[in-house]
UniProtKB/TrEMBL annotation:
This is Methyltransferase type 12. InterPro entries: Methyltransf_25, SAM-dependent_MTases_sf. Residues 42-131 form the Methyltransferase domain. Keywords: Methyltransferase, Transferase. GO terms for biological process: methylation. GO terms for molecular function: methyltransferase activity. CDD domains: AdoMet_MTases (cd02440). It comes from the Bacteria. PANTHER family: TRANS-ACONITATE 2-METHYLTRANSFERASE, TRANS-ACONITATE 2-METHYLTRANSFERASE-RELATED. It comes from Sulfitobacter mediterraneus. The keyword Disulfide bond does not apply.
Amino acid sequence: MTSDPMKAFFELHRDLPREGPGEAADVAWAAGIAGLPASAEIADVACGPGGDIASLLEAAPEGHVTALDKTAHFVEAARDVWQSDSRVTVLKADMARIMNSYDMIWCAGAVYFLGVTEALTAWRKSLRPGGVVAFTEPCWFTDDRSERAQKMWADYPPMTDANGIAARVEAAGFETLATRKLSDAAWEGYFAPIDKRIAVLRPGADAALTAVLDEAEEEAAAWRAHRDECGYLLSVVRLK
C-alpha cells in the first residue's frame, strides 16, 4: 500500500466521519452554555472532514458556519457534503490565523497543536462582544495514572488536569464558564469507525501502514482500559 509513514497515517484516517472524539450533545451543551442565538456566526476550527458541522447548524439554524482546516483532503471531504448549503463555507486555512468575527469559535480536539493560552490569545480578536470559544483538550482526571495511560499521552507533555486547563484559559485573559467531560459515546464515535478501517487495511499492509494501525489500535485499547484516568475536557470560555 504505502511505505511513507505520513501517507500511511492519512490512509487510515481517510473517509472517517470525524477526526477526534465528540458527539452532537457536546455542541448542544456548549451552545446552551453560551446562550448562542439562532442566527449565530460560528467558526469550526480544524474541522477535519466536518463531523461537527451538522450539530453546529442545529445550534444556529439561521446562522452560518465557517469551517476551516489546513489538510486538503479533509477540506475536500467537508465540501463534498456541504457545498450546496449556503449556511456553510469550508476553507483551507490555518487555525492559527482566523479571519472575520464570530459568536462562537468551536475547536474539537485540535487546540493542543497551538496550546490553550496561545490559541485563545490568537483568536480573541475574532470574537464578537460576548462571544465564546468552546474547545476540547486532553485532560487527566486523576493523579493516580497508570503507565499505559501515561504512554498513551507521552507525545503531549503539557497535558494537565482541569485546574491546569483553567489556569491556561485565565492566562489568555478568558474565564471558564463551564466544563464537560466527553462521554464514552463521544469516544466510541471516533474509535469504532477506526476499528473497522483497521480491519479493512490490515491484509496486505506494509511495515509503515502496519505501524500506524498498531499505534491506533493501542490508543483505542489504552483509552478503553483507562478511561477513568484520562480523556478530553470540553471547556466553554469567554473574555473577561
